[in-house]
Prior knowledge:
The protein is α/β, with parallel strands linked by helices. It is built from seven helices and seven strands. The chain is globular and about 50 Å long.
Amino acid sequence: MKKICVVTGTSSGIGAALVPTLLEQGWEVFGIARREADVQHEAYTGVSLDLADLEAVQTYFDGGFLREVNLAGYGRIGMVNNAAALGTLGPQDTLSPGEMARVFNLNTIIPIWLMGFFLKHSQQCSLVIVNVSSGLATVPRAGLTTYCASKSALRIAGLVAAEDVENFEGYAGRAGNTAIVSYSPGTVATAMQENMRGNSTGTLPSVQRFVDLYEQNKLKPAEHPSREIAALLSRSDLPLHSEITFGYA
Ligand SMILES: NC(=O)c1ccc[n+]([C@@H]2O[C@H](COP(=O)([O-])OP(=O)(O)OC[C@H]3O[C@@H](n4cnc5c(N)ncnc54)[C@H](OP(=O)(O)O)[C@@H]3O)[C@@H](O)[C@H]2O)c1
């Protein structure tokens, strides 16, 4: 069975660790980030794209991507909405609406649009969407409004996507071959954690917690959650919607 997976955020962290695992498992991979990922493999296509640029993303997927890829030729399609940013940290009165909107484009709007895109264009084959979530999608933490709110919105949008599949005629028959997973990787040793630790209590009152996790060697390597994401993408027993935390995949 031919299988193809689109992964966002492949230039560092969890996304970068996921690509070689998928290639080893026989997936064709389209990796998207602004920076190029260091991957040389005939089954890998790297796409340099700013996922906060709504028009550029639509133009690429509706145009170049569909011209290059005949999705009907695949038995399984994977979509991993992994790219995200923290946005500016600090109390809400310090946030800029323009910057917040850019981060929401990246963390929420484009992942939602990509869920719809692949639901529309994968009618015949099985589709597994993994939205990389966070404990902070459901737990408020001072200073992290943009991140918490954007991840929370993506979480509920995944639940709504499952409702759409069950209730809209256009998706008739899709419930049996679609899985939407909201996956929380736990605390992982990536640039995002470095960014957290780089704050002061003035922007992130709980910064010491992130420093402690690092100093006590409690951050997991990116390869650990990426292996779980790869395993999820290959499963055929997932329900239409599931929420999975690292260690429970
Ligand atoms: N690390 C953790 O402890 C942790 C915990 C919970 C959840 N997560 C989630 O895990 C996922 C991966 O994060 P990570 O920790 O691996 O972070 P990371 O190392 O900072 O990686 C973020 C990735 O997103 C891409 N990205 C950022 N802005 C982009 C843009 N405008 N356009 C295109 N790509 C963009 C980056 O590529 P470019 O900069 O090259 O564009 C990079 O490849 C995120 O969804 C994050 O919320 C992480």
